[in-house]
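Bumping with the actual sequence this time:
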Amino acid sequence: MRTLCLLLAASAASAFASSSPPAQAIKNIIVTGANKGQGLALCDRVLSEHDDTRVFLCSRNLKRGQGAADKLRRELKERGITTCVGDGVDRIEVIQLDVTSDDSVTSAAKCVKEILDSSSCESRSLYGVVSNAGILWGYPLSDLIDVCATGVRRVCDAFLPLLQDDGRLIVVSSGLGPLMNGYASEDRQSALMGPSCTWEGTIQPMIEECLDVYEASNEEDRPAEFENIRFPGGPFADTAPDFHMYGLSKMFADVYMKTLARSHPNLRINSCDPGLVYTDLILKMPRYEGKTRDETNGAQTPHEGVEAAMQLLFDDVGKGAESGMFYAMSKDKTELQYSDINKMPNK
């Protein structure tokens, strides 16, 4: 990874030294989990709709990431969209990043910084960070937390220092996050939503409590045990326990997002719900297994599913009092709406 970064940086520095035109300002955007699904679709839309952008396509598996980037470059060229900006700078940089590994995320952030510092373009900081990597169905709570909550924290903490002064940070969440927050007891909600909430003092202890209960209980007793610690799953506790656990992991991610928004008021930091999107994540669910998109009764394409993230990235929304919120498209997909993180927007 270090060697790859240095080679990329050296190449960019060489281009900068030999360039005669003035440096060009571009918007540098990080997208995690970007080798497929919504992450790849977001990279496509960013590059297709905004010619002053460069994406850092992050993938846990470097080979898959490079394959996805090569395919995306070909498709963009076929549509007449340039894949270079400024003095020949590639608009797609592939970064190896495993959100479950501290070392991987730290290394990825160093790599991105080296590329930014050596770029021939004017922009030497990040315009946006999109924490998109996630898992959904069929995983134990420990894995869900590691990817969807702690993984979000790793990414945010590593890349937030590289954001420009008015940068944007987006956590791709789920409507199940606000639902689980709303199902939690009043004292739990008060602690999670309060101004003194921190990862170390509030969120992490609650995560550990949930993990202890999960490990100590069987599937039959688990709904009652989570009720006892005041994190019930509502109707999902019995009918869809995977959604209960997934929702808790997203709830903790949303809460951490809100703490960051509170401590960085100059940035636009928000969560968003893409809605039901036809990717391999939902195809692992019994309800959708083996079905085509037409048979899912309303699942969006990945390109449709990233609309909220696109608006949060590029539109004049999500700032000031509207930062630290939970966003989603309206039911008819015409309007971006928001609410606090303990309830869904009025869709």
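The tokens above came from a reply further down the thread. Strands lie at 27-31, 53-59, 84-85, 89-90, 92-96, 126-131, 163-172, 268-273, 326-329, 336-339.
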